[in-house]
Amino acid sequence: MKRILKYLKPYRKKVVIAVLLVSVSSICDLLLPTLMSSILDNGVRGKDFGYICLCCLAMLVTAGLSLATVLWSNKLAARLVADVSCDMRADIFRKVNTFTFEEFGKLGTAALVTRATHDVETLSWIVSMLASTVATMPLLFIGGFVLALLKDVVLSLIILAFLPIIVIAVILIGKKVLPLWENSDLYIDKQNAIMRERLRGIRVIRAFGSEAHEHERIAEATNVMAESIIRGNTAMGILTPMAMLLLNVAIVLIVYLSGLRFGSGLSAGDVFAIVQYVTMVMNGVIMASFAIVMLPRAQVASKRIGEVLDAKGMGQNEHGIEHTLEGNIRFENVSFSYGGANKAVSNICLNIEKGQKVAIIGGTGSGKSTLVSLMLGFRMPTEGKVLYDGIATTDLAMSCVRDGISSVLQGSAIYTGTIAENIRMGRPDATDEELYEAARIAQLSDFVDTLDGKLEYEITQAGKNLSGGQKQRLSIARAIVKEAPIYIFDDSFSALDFLTEKKLRSALNEHIRGKTQIVITQRITSAMSADCIFVMEKGELIDAGKHDELLERCKVYREIFASQTGGGTK
Ligand code: ADP
Ligand code: MG
Description:
The protein has about 575 residues and is α/β, with parallel strands linked by helices.
């Protein structure tokens, strides 16, 4: 509730206006039956045509005013719901951008999507419903009841007899429906996750011919969800006919009792007005009890959104030391674990000096990419320190680390947009010539030249119209265009043939001469020309040195070399 109030705060003026408008329309609605009853009692019975016309005119004006205020307030409310949802979604998006990787892992992409879409929608819908009943209910209920009492006390008391029945029925139905909805919310997460996974892996599914099995899996999740929704809506469907039945029974009772009581000064107009007021009050009560039943559902949605908004997020260390990186990196006894008992890297000590060209080599799962995450400050060491020019990453402002490093991460990320836009992410103010130069160094220019529109060629979502090697080279071009003292390439040449890699590396070395360069690789040919090669195995740094030295003394390095060169020693 607090969260909602916080989001409504900037729009309080609109909220007040909307409530006032709704109140005016409720007052108009309350006036109508009284006017009608006086037409019947004074106009029709007294055959006073002028009076009837006057009352009709008054009714027309009142109804018009009610209509206008309702339309206006609905428009305001719709706008308000849209604005609040928009703010909430923007906050979720901003927050997700600051998530640590652990937080990403805990919630999962699919759940994050449903939080920003489905949950925000549910919450704003229920809030708007609650708000409109909260604004109209007291007026309609008290006003309608008092006006009915003024007409006839005994007949009005019939409302009181029926109220508990309606409230109990609505609450019972609500109790039945609520868990069903919660269940369907839960399955929306699941279904979304399965669907995402399926769509991403569609090629594997087709290649293995497992469509039928996958279809079954998704059908299972969908069916549970559909069943919950159908059962929920069926239960809700009972509500309206039941309310109508009760209402009509009440009306019959009123008419019957009024027949018995006609002698006591009760007029036809009075009976008419009482029937109208009873209808109003009962409708109001149904709406209000329903809104109250929905409250827990809003709480569920708010809790789910809260899981995102209240996450701690990654500290950007804004108050940390501002320092322009020079290019020296040191790992002091660094260990890191992804949460389990096993350490992904343990007790790493390494020193990379400004301007050095180093390579980190090792088999898959040996901890190379984990070292990159630690360098970039994506993860903080569980033990030990990562230092830049002698300052620990924990003390540095994170923006300095990010500004000082240009990296190509494993698994190239390409975005929808043109080639130029993708490269320009490296440096937003880069000119077209600089972009083209970066593409040339990344050995992409031959390819770009063949494209319609060259750098303006449109890339479809996630780079689907590019090959693996083209995507890698595009990511490399993006890193090249950024100017930084440190360049990191994590498995970035793996999809390139040897000749292309050779050309690219020599152009790259030329371009970033004097900058610190860290190449992470499984290929001996990518590593051997480095000033220093670090050899990783099972999360440990087992040796470091030049190619020749390592061949002499490091068994693991020799094995990697032998496996890739067909057994020779050099
Ligand atoms: P490399 O890059 O050398 O192939 P990684 O640094 O990616 O190796 O992985 C090192 C170890 O950490 C592996 O055992 C891997 O299973 C584990 N690991 C990597 N990423 C994660 C993660 N996000 N969550 C849990 N474990 C991970
Ligand atoms: Mg890796």
